[in-house]
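Usage

Read records sequentially. Each one opens with the input sequence:
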Amino acid sequence: MVNSANILIVDDNKVNREVLKDLTFTIEHTPVLAENGALAIARIKKEHPDIVLLDILMPVMDGYEVLDHMKGDTDLRHIPIIMISAVDEMDSVVQCIEKGADDYLIKPFNPILLKARISACLEKKRLRDKEEEYRHQIEEYNQNLSEAYENLQQEYEARILAEKKLKKIRRSVFAFIFVFLFILSYAVFENVHQFLAVTKPIHGQILVAGPSMPVHEAERVAEEFRQGNYKLIITTGEISKNKKVSIHARSFAAALEKAGFDPKQIKILSFPKVEKDRTYTSAAMLKQWLKTTDLSVKAINVYSHGPHARRTWLLYEYVFEPEIKTGIISADNNTYNPQTWWKTSNGVRTTLNEAIAYMYARLIFRPD
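and closes with the structure output:
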């Protein structure tokens, strides 16, 4: 059984159209008629025929124009075109073949030749469509293969990243254990408090009273200010609820003024209440404030309290160095004897809390 095809017949001669129509029916295909090139283009775009039988000389739009239009359209160029010509139009037929026409028919029409030409063009179209189908399948396969490779690559990179993170965690855990054992050994030899309550001042232009500094230490801080020839002292502290200035920082500043300080030499620096990393926040706020001033600061010293000094120094170094050098001064905690800190509950609680906090700051905490 013959597979029926839609054959578009384009000829301005009604007799020729009817003859081709009857012959098309005879060879068991479906004819579609158009009397000029413009109507043919409209029918082609709407119905997408399997073959076009195209006359050359027509009004409105001739066969050359239709041929150029179809071959210039990516959606239409694959449709086979058989040119219809008289015996004396062979030069025109040759020109059409050069433009991309697939075959030609000479008037008057021979049914056997018509059937053979149409069958050959349909077979060529079938093979071309099959080739296009295979090409699309190959492109789809290549696309799927490319996506699969990308997914595999992403999974591989994710696994490598996970392994690196795992190694980093392992190193951190081992380092944490090592530092913990190290500090614990220091405790056995009575040196952990000395390690935490570090004092290593440098020549700086600014003296900072950290948020952990008790107000009663103001006179000691004032003495350091006078001996160190500082230009400015900064008191820091958290802002309490419904307050605009830190009560601690303001109280410390008042104690300094009571100790004979010029208020112009004191800067109160308040920062919002935070749940954790208070010391780091105070350092970050100080650095931000310094950027808004004309002060040329190369080094600062931070006054801290007891074993809190080591962690304070580390966190200030995170914020300021290498641009600004940082020194540290530790004020003794008078609530217990630093040499025998393990003999009082306050000494044990304060020292071990600061030891654990220092390990967190050293091994786990990462600045933003």
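Summary fields computed downstream for this record:
- The CA atoms of residues 86 and 322 lie 93 Å apart.
- The chain has eleven helices and ten strands.
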